[in-house]
Write a structure and sequence with these properties.
Helices cover 16% and strands 39% of the residues. By secondary structure, the chain is of the alpha+beta class. It has 2 domains: 7-12 and 211-358, Sandwich (Jelly Rolls), CATH 2.60.120; 33-208, no CATH class.
């Protein structure tokens, strides 16, 4: 199960006609099962690809499957036991685990279809040791116990012995909040020996989101104050020191912000950084939304509920909340209408620092 615990999205598109139809060989996987990629397959591939991205230490670009990157990933998978076939290979010994040389070799073959690196490469980072035909390591409580790399698959194309997966990557902080999103495309190759549901990773490419919009408008805007402006574009400038602030009386329930495109775009979801994250004072003193209606150019809409609408002040990077739609939507625009908000300690104005359109 995905850790999308930070959003309770409605499972119901309140309009059944979304203007979307699957392209040839392209399968929508959100909220559905497909014969070519079962839910179990999807969970395994998302697990491996998300953690592989994490191990590459590069937010965007082509992931280079070096031996060091492979070793880091295998260490994590052995440590967390999140894939049943990998967990079955490990022998638990109190606060540590071990895996045989043969099973270790199969793990590396499973990952890329290549040979196992030399012993000194596997033990080079000091996490695993080798003796008596076994690799042994301690169960860790470091970064991977705090940060969860997430891959969300939104489509698959199968061609012969290869499978191409598309979707989004992000980092989850605990189970409440997420970081900025990236798009990914992975090429998998059939491998009869692979414990990763019969496939190895041939390539993984991660890119920045498509941020193209024609314009951004809002139903209302707070007037400039003390040299600060609160225009709708502030919610799309990747600057945590600015925010769109609605200009209605009270908490601004009913206010909206609209992102318009040059033509129809396929949109998979929305990510929101609620509140005014310029500093701790602006965050606590100003209001923030608690839920939205998200609507599209064809008249369809869905709901988004933020369970972290009153979090402790931490860092902006860790505090995005998001929803992936049950189905991708073909639309000329996306509108977020505030349907619930909480006032700040000083001001009622509702603020949104950033919005990401997942397309």
């Amino acid at each position: 199960m995905k850790k999308i615990a930070f959003i309770l999205a409605s499972c119901l598109m309140l309009s059944l006609t979304l203007g979307w139809a699957p392209a040839t060989d392209h399968v929508d996987l959100l909220g559905t099962q497909d014969a070519e990629l079962t839910v179990t397959d999807r969970e395994v591939f998302e697990n491996v690809l998300g953690k592989l991205w994490w191990c590459s230490s590069s937010p965007a670009g082509d992931v280079v499957l070096t031996e060091e990157v492979q070793v880091r990933l295998i260490q994590i998978l052995l440590n967390d036991g999140s894939i049943p076939a990998v967990k079955a290979m490990t022998r638990q010994m109190g606060s540590s685990f071990s895996v045989s040389d043969g099973d270790m070799a199969r793990l590396f073959d499973s990952l890329t279809g290549g040979p196992m690196p030399a012993e000194e490469v596997i033990t080079g980072e000091g996490y695993l040791t080798h003796a008596g035909g076994q690799y042994t390591g301690p169960y860790a409580t470091g970064d991977m116990a705090i940060y969860y790399p997430e891959a969300d698959i939104t489509g698959v194309t199968v061609a012969g012995d290869t499978m191409t997966l598309q979707g989004f990557m992000h980092i989850s902080y605990s189970i409440d909040y997420a970081e900025s999103f990236y798009k990914f495309e992975a090429l998998l190759q059939k491998n009869a020996n692979s414990v990763f549901n019969g496939y190895s990773v041939a390539s993984l490419s991660v890119r920045e989101l498509d941020r193209s919009v024609r314009d951004i408008t809002a139903s209302s805007v707070l007037a400039p104050q003390s040299g600060n402006t609160y225009v709708p574009g502030n919610a799309f400038d990747q600057n945590f020191a600015t925010a769109w602030v609605e200009g209605e009386s009270g908490t601004g329930v009913g206010s909206s912000i609209t992102f318009s495109f040059d033509g129809p775009e396929t949109v998979y979801g929305v990510s929101v950084l609620p509140g005014y994250w310029k500093n701790q004072d602006t965050y606590q003193q100003n209001g923030r939304p608690t839920d939205f209606i998200i609507s599209f150019s064809d008249g369809s809409f869905t709901a988004m509920y933020l369970i972290g609408s009153e979090p402790e002040y931490g860092t902006a990077e860790e505090s995005y909340e998001y929803v992936l739609f049950d189905r991708p939507v073909e639309t000329d625009s996306v509108t977020l209408t505030i349907t619930g908000a909480v006032a700040g300690t000083r001001f009622e104005d509702t603020c949104i620092t950033e919005i990401q359109i997942l397309k």
